């Protein structure tokens, strides 16, 4: 019978009396159960280890004093270096210097302190292996049962813009070696590899003193290898630069989501949402919420003037730029008030009470803004599940990736935002200043729409879009139909396309609906056919030279 079977047996036998021995059959059965329970207890005892000696060498000392105090109370001996040793002694507790144990001083400007057999022998010694025990006794190596160490702040140093010499010195050697050694020998040793694990260790110490179970030590080891792998990934990516010679991405802080894209799929988010948003109201953010939030942030960042956008399934269904946020909201909603139901709202302006009252008239999942007036929050917070996010000014990664087949696709983010200087007029008729503004406006939206995509706009308002179509003609027809359904007059509107027109059919259809100006990347071998049609029918067309596919 295996240990797992014994665990199950004891769970099912909790209500049995082990001391009621009446009856031969009962007596025989209970005696067997009792014997097994004794073995089970012995197993637990064998897996429980007491901490007698701790090596502590950390960069971050906040939160460490409680741990040190409790360990001292439990009779644990301390071994440390430099500033950490001074910190322990400042708390009033004795601490042996690593140099006294190794008989070597800290050398090479502090690069070599703990890298010594008397340190690593004490960590890696297998307590149950007689040969190991004989060797550490022979070489007078003390057992080390707990290692608390964190790493030099490499990522923070890189982010600070420090010179390379300073960055290189923040590549931890001794610390990472201690982490790996202690984690490898989790059967006997506890490893605390970052400040994030201070509290879990403190909780264990406060609950039952300086003892840990095998399960706990294995958990700390798992966390430690997470720390080391993340650290090494950051170092590799620094040296690799823009070469992209291998894909290394490490993200911590797992958040388990209610489900993935669908109910039958598990979903997780890895990252620090709290660095980007303060959630001040509402239910837990879902997988699909996050997809829409990401699309919303990408879209709104295209606009400098006051803008409101409504998104559904990662595409804009309403968007307008106006002098005031209330006006922007009303005109964004007018673009498709049906699709706005259950959508994600985002603005780059502070939401006031008047705007909040108008927004509150519809059902939506999420609203994102840089800030809200207090009385606006009172209005928006009336629905308990509504997610209200305050966006923080955080720079987003310059690269993006997705899993695909048996590998990963990586690319630079599409950060190109066209300006009037990027536009090349390819028709006899040049666009007006207002048309140029509307074309650039529409181009920002089509860039952030699923291909194939067409956007129709006028007066810095999204009239309609056709997205995610297998044919560009179908995308245009979809946009026209939607615009008409919501009462928009397309005369004088502009059209934006995320890619070139292979034939003049789209401009012909647009012309017949009253659209007067077109913006597109250009680059088709049959571009001239579209140019010629525009010239023959008095339309203006500009090319950008930049395609914006989004699949």
Average predicted confidence as pLDDT: 91
Q: What is the H level of CATH, i.e. the homologous superfamily of the largest domain?
A: Methylglyoxal synthase-like domain
CATH level-two architecture of the largest domain:
3-Layer(aba) Sandwich
Determine the structural class based on helices, strands and strand pairing.
alpha/beta
**CATH class group of the largest domain:** Alpha Beta
Binned, the helix content reads: 40-55%
CATH fold group of the largest domain: Rossmann fold
Radius of gyration equals 33 Å
**Tally of extended strands?**
23
Estimate what percentage of residues fall within beta strands. Answer: 15-25%
Shape: elongated
User: Within the largest sheet, what's the order of strands?
Assistant: 10-15-14-13-11-12
Q: How is the main sheet built?
A: 6 strands, mixed
Number of helices: 21
Uncertain stretches of 5 or more adjacent residues: 1-6, 13-22
Distance between the termini: 55 Å
Number of domains: 4
Please name the defining characteristics of this protein:
551 residues, alpha/beta, Rossmann fold, Cytidine Deaminase, domain 2, 6-stranded mixed beta sheet, 23 strands, disordered N terminus
Give the secondary structure arrangement, pairings included.
Blueprint: H1 3-12, H2 24-47, E1 49-50, E2 53-57, H3 65-73, E3 77-80, H4 82-90, E4 96-97, H5 98-102, H6 117-124, H7 130-138, E5 146-149, H8 154-159, H9 164-169, H10 174-184, E6 190-192, H11 198-208, E7 211-212, H12 214-240, E8 254-256, E9 268-270, H13 273-276, E10 277-281, H14 287-300, E11 307-312, E12 315-321, H15 325-334, E13 343-347, H16 353-359, E14 364-369, H17 374-380, E15 387-391, E16 399-404, E17 407-412, E18 424-425, H18 433-447, E19 454-457, E20 462-466, H19 472-485, E21 494-497, H20 505-512, E22 517-520, H21 527-536, E23 540-543
Helix pairs in contact: 1-2, 3-11, 10-12, 15-16, 16-17, 19-20
């Amino acid at each position: 019978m295996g240990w797992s079977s014994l665990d199950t047996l004891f769970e099912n036998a909790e209500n049995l009396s082990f001391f009621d021995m009446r009856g031969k059959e009962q007596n025989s059965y209970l005696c067997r159960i009792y014997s097994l329970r004794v073995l089970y207890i012995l197993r637990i005892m064998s897996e429980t280890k007491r901490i007698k000696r701790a090596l502590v060498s950390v960069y971050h000392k906040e939160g460490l004093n409680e741990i040190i105090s409790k360990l001292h109370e439990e009779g644990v001996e301390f071994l440390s270096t430099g500033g950490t040793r001074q910190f322990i002694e400042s708390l009033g507790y004795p601490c042996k210097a690593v140099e006294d144990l190794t008989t070597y001083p800290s050398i090479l400007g502090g690069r070599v302190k703990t890298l010594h057999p008397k340190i690593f022998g004490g960590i890696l010694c297998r307590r149950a292996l007689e040969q190991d025990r004989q060797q550490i006794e022979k070489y007078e190596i003390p057992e080390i049962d707990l290692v608390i160490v964190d790493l030099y702040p490499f990522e923070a140093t890189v982010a600070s813009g420090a010179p390379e010499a300073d960055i290189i010195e923040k590549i931890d050697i001794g610390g990472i070696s201690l982490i790996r050694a202690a984690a490898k020998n989790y059967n006997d040793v506890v490893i605390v590899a970052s400040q994030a694990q201070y509290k879990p260790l403190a909780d264990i110490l406060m609950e039952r003193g300086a003892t840990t179970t095998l399960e706990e030590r294995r958990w700390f080891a798992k966390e430690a290898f997470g720390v080391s792998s993340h650290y090494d990934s950051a170092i590799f990516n620094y040296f690799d630069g823009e070469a992209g010679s291998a894909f290394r991405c490490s993200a911590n802080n797992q958040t388990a989501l209610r489900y993935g894209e669908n109910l039958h799929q598990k979903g997780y988010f890895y990252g620090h949402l709290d660095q980007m948003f303060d959630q001040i109201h509402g239910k837990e953010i879902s997988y699909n919420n996050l997809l829409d939030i990401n699309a919303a942030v990408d879209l709104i960042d295209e606009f400098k003037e006051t803008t409101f956008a409504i998104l559904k399934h990662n595409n804009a269904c309403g968007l307008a730029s106006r002098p005031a946020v209330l006006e922007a909201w009303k005109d964004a909603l007018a673009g498709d008030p049906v699709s706005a139901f259950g959508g994600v709202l985002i603005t780059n302006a502070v939401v006031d009470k008047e705007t909040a009252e108008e927004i509150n008239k519809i059902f939506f999942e999420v609203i994102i803004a840089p800030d809200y007036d207090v009385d606006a929050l009172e209005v928006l917070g009336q629905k308990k599940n509504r997610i209200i996010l305050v966006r923080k000014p955080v720079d987003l990664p310059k690269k993006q990736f997705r899993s695909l087949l048996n590998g990963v696709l990586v690319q630079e983010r599409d950060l190109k935002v066209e300006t009037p200087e990027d536009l090349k007029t390819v028709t006899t008729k040049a666009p007006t200043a207002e048309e140029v503004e509307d074309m650039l406006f529409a181009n920002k939206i089509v860039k952030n729409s699923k291909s194939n995509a067409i956007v129709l706009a006028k007066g810095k308002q999204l009239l309609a879009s056709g997205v995610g179509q297998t044919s560009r003609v179908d995308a245009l027809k979809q946009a026209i139909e939607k615009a008409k359904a919501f009462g928009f007059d397309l005369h004088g509107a502009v059209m934006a396309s995320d890619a070139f027109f292979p034939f003049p059919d789209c401009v012909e259809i647009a012309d017949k609906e009253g659209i007067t100006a077109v913006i597109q990347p250009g680059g088709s071998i049959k571009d001239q056919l579209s140019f010629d049609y525009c010239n023959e029918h008095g339309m203006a067309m500009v090319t950008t030279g930049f395609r914006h596919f989004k699949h």
